[in-house]
Amino acid sequence: MRRLSAVLLCATLLSACDDSEGSVYVRPPPFTQSYPDGGVSPDGGSGPESWACQRSSVVRGAPISLWVGLQLAMSRATSPEVRTAAIDQFVADVAAQGGTPLVSDASSGRQRVVFFVRGDAARDTYVAGDFNEWSPTATQLAQVRDTDLFVAEVDIPRTGPHPYKLVKAGSFFEDPRAKNVVWDRLNRNAVGQFNSLVYPDAQDATKGRLTAWYGVHATVLGDARDVYVYMPPSYDGPECPTLPVMYVHDGNESITRESFVDAADAHYKARPQDAAVLVFVALPTQDVRLAQYTFPPARAPGWPAPKGDEYLAFLKDDLMPRVEAGFRVKTGPRDTGIFGASLGGLISVYAGFQFPERFGFVGTQSGTLFWPHDGEVDRDDGNAMVVRAGQEPVVPVRFYVDHGSPATGCTDDGEQGSDDCQSNIQFLAALRSRGYDVAYVHEPSGQHDWFFWKKRLPKLLCVFRNTDTRVCAL
Description:
This protein has about 475 residues and is α/β, with parallel strands linked by helices. It is built from twelve helices and 17 strands. The chain has helices at about 1-15, 55-60, 65-75, 80-95, 255, 260-270, 290, 310-325, 345-355, 385-390, 420-435, 450-465, and strands at about 100-105, 110-120, 125-130, 140-145, 150-155, 165-170, 170-175, 180-185, 195, 210-215, 225-230, 245-250, 275-280, 335-340, 360-365, 400-405, 440-445. The strands form two sheets. Strands 3, 6, 7, 8, 9, 10, 11, 12, 13, 14, 15, 16 and 17 form a 13-stranded mixed sheet that branches. A hairpin with a 2-residue loop joins strand 6 and strand 7. The longest helix has 19 residues, at about 310-325. It is elongated.
């Protein structure tokens, strides 16, 4: 009975009770999903308060009071159906208020953290992080009796971000309900993985941060993919800036192969005035890359049917409204860009020609610009993007084009070391012949590889924010 009374008291106060004496509960600022855009001015104004732009105030997991509230609801439940409904509401509230893990308020004397996983498959799941020396068996999630909820409650001091993963049968994997993540720094030369963070507000304030949206649904394609939103350091400043935004293809590999986040951090430290929000859009699987990053016709018989139009429908109709509602980003083509490498460069150029009213800046790195112009794959009537640049009406889009090549000269596309320089040079000439605003970078000996794209990325980021490319040393 004493234990139940304590739970009731904690839930009534809506605070995470700690065991230290003399602690004073201080209610944190209100939280909104549009983090860190929280709250309104006391005088009824629409602008965010200065605290709403501080990592220490709003960049965190859901409050542990939700867990206390669930305990109260479970103690009152009179049937399995009522317990299930209480857990459903708990899970929804956690998602709406910051994601996992649930954390105590920073002012609490005891810093408690709650991890949870739901479903029968969660049995025998553990949590591993730097707080338990990444032990795969030290911290097990225990089943809440008569439910499908598995929970671990741990004391973790606020001495750093404390990255972690979930573990089952010795395999480490991402916490699917966590929103604040960092790359785990393991280059798998393929799709990579991320660590979730216990205290994301404790990250290095001189660097940007990532918010993960897992399983974002594409209406037309009928699939789902992960999206990682990068916010530069200035985003969390007291000025509460609203920044331009750029959408990046191959959103997993561009972070986990050769980290574009690292390159962005370095560039925005050197030139904070160039800061922008970067939206890294991953693929559902690598198997659909060729289809979703191309447009009709298929390059050769037997190749997958191109679905680039459907992919762009996802970007502009599903994802962009969510980003614009959830983050302080500018809207309109002048402040919206799109870029990618290889096939990602091809679909970016296509997006610029198809939707100049949405994307006013296009970046292509070693773009696969030899895609054919019409449905006759056995007829050489020119490369599609070269033809569009040179023959169709000029659209109000600025371009950034880069590529590598052999050490001397340029070879035909497809030859060793060409880095598709032939079609890229043709595209550049077509743009210039029509008076397009285009910035160009050629790297002799540059290869078709993430290392070189990351190396050239600062130029692209600079050009996006500066119409006078002389400030970008171009």
